[in-house]
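Exercise 7. Given the components listed, write out the predicted structure of the assembled complex. Treat all entries as one system.
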Amino acid sequence: MKRFYLLFLLLPIFLCSCVEIIDDLTLNLDGSGTFKYTINLSSSKVKVNSIMALDSFNGKKVMKLGELDNMLAEFKDVLKKEKGIRSVQMEFNKTDFIIKIAIDFGSIQELQNGIKTAFIKVDPKNNMLHDDGIWMSWDGKSLSRIIPNIAAERIKNVKDTEDNLLKTGTYTCISRLPRSIAKTNNVQCKLNPSKTASMLRVNALDLKLNPNLLEHTITLSP
Amino acid sequence: MTKLFLPLFLGFTLNVVSQGAEQLIPSQAVTVFSINNTDVLQKISIDEWITYDFMNEIHQELFDKSTENKSVKDAGLDFDKRLCSFYGKTSTYELTGFTFGIKNLNDLFTVFDDFEEIPSNDQNVRVYQSLFNNLIVNQDNGLLVRIEPLEPYLNNLTDSIWYARGNTSPYYAFDEDQDMTEEEITNEDVNKDMLEKTYYELRDSLQFELQKQYYATVMHGLLSDKESLYSKDSVFRELFTHTSAGVFYLDNSRNVDRSKNLWYLKTVLPTLYLDVQDLYEDNIITGDLVLEESSIKFKLKTSYSAPLGAIYSEMNDAKFDNSIAKYIRSDQPAYFTYTINLRAAYEKAFEVLVPILSKANDPEISFNLLMLKLGNALINKDAVFDTYKGSLFLTFNGVQKVKTKKITFFYDEETFEYGEKESEAEEDMPIFTMGFSTKRKDIPDMVLEHLSQVTSKFENKGDYWVFNKAIFDAAPVFIINTKDLFILTNDQDFAENHRDGFGKDALSKKQIKNIKKSGTMAGFVDIQQLALNFPSEFINETQQELFNFLRNKSGNLSLRSVETKAQFSTFEMNYSFLDKERSSKHFLDLLNTLYLLTR
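Answer.
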């Protein structure tokens, strides 16, 4: 569940804002694929800008725009050198606060290892990143997505006073697969008409109350 | 800041009434705050007092492990005497400290147990020293003072000696690209550490020597020359005849921070420096803190030299602009008005400054003076000062939802592919309005017309203008250019519906009368409304602490200038509260908040 890792690095800003996240995974038959991740804070840009003008917020140092830019660039540089990572593209819209990243990878395992290593290099003090759990698994027949405990704990810790903002935030998890989908174990998962993609969309506040909402396994037709 | 604040607050914990302790304040002190505890302590018990955060700090400072389980109550201090805290800064050192009455010297030394007595050249005065502080005991009065060389000065001095001896930089870092073995890197690190250690040893010994030297200077003035701030300054002396709960003193003419901009003049052009300094001669700010049944008043008096007074007198000779009143609601959470005659102030400043600057032989100053004279002769001053007359108002209008733009993602239900589109959004924003008096509507109009041709962000809406995405590239600012006022606001409702004022909801006649009576400055804050409405994400954590404190308070804060004369101006700040808490409790609450803010 690396999607949360990006979110955590940019704490405390993001969880105090109305955030829209799109987590889009495309898998090929050979296990390679493309992972796209989008964080959209444009509906809270006044708030994000005002927080970024502060030195610290809720007891945590606030990252300046330049620092964030540097950190993202460093993350990209480190990640693209990782084994199995074929290309990394990153876009940061500083006016509307939208960050987009697209990673082409050789296998799910290499993607997860690459992301984890890159985050540890960029933010070595963050203990959370040393969690060695597996957040996604793919065996050629089914794709499973789970949330690491540490990530679940983090989102639980968002202050209750920020709940109103979380209410308007969304997390959208899209999986595009090489064959048609036979079933999914999460009833909230929506399939496209050709049954080659699933979309699971949850409210950020609901996710705080129940971090398991995003867990699902997609089984492909034989 | 804590260092400075500590003595300040320690000052509050002690007292003043019988004469003496304040007479020990060194003449180098620039700022003094003194509290008359008979007013404060009669209403607040020491037990209650020592529960405040600032008292914790004092305890930590004064009471180390050897004085565990003791409090300021056990320190042998005379709580019936005035306590003063002071701060002073010269170009090379700063001093902080406080003076206090002593009831029991033995008890005092159970707290100040790190002090050792050293010889004194005055038989009535006993002198003690610890590692950082000096304690002077003159009968039943005490002075605790800390004198330290200024850090930039100390660093410069250390560097000059260090490099004159041929040393390399103590912060020398080896070239990372250089190929070095592990052993070479370790040796390099050790050498670097040694170098740094030696540098800091030099710095420490210089600091120690300078400290001794400055301490001797201060003590010589105080004990041998018998020269204290009290004996030297009649304004300071007079303050101690006041019966108010606290008094404040700031000698702005000796305020190094203010005059540091003149440092160049002082070194390069001493004559000119002295002339400009003359402007600030007698520029002393004094204040009285008065506790009343349901309010706390802070009365401030600024004295100045005749030339500066002449400029201020001209500047303040202005009448409140009546056109402002209709743009302030009677129930506004906070507002401020500033009424001055900028044209008159400019003319007087020109008259006073030109002869001073004319004395300079410096080519740069001469050139600046020429520009100033040319500007004065060629620029249409009527147009400039009719466009910006100097008077203004500022209001806080609470928090409103403002319209912003956001990017949303839309999805193709067939493929789950997604794209972006811009749509309307709403965000909470504190709303402010600011307006300037003007007689030349045509000039801002000309500028706005031009800007609207240059960028599409400026939109003419007929009676007003919108500067789109002006705040954080998201929220608009509205510009209203009336016959008498040029107004900027982020309040859409104001721009759309109140361009001609708030009508019957505007300030009442009584409120306007009060503003007019206030002269140059008038301000009002409904404390609770301001604290409740102001969004926390727009302020830092320490400011949040102040707002959290204010949220529990009900009352108003008002500011007004009372009087302007050729020699002085007076101001008054009044904090009135509606609850039944004692004024001394409010006073200490406020001090505690200030302490938390500056911690």
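Discussion: The longest strand of chain B covers residues 392-411. Confidence is low (pLDDT under 50) at residues 1-18 of chain B.
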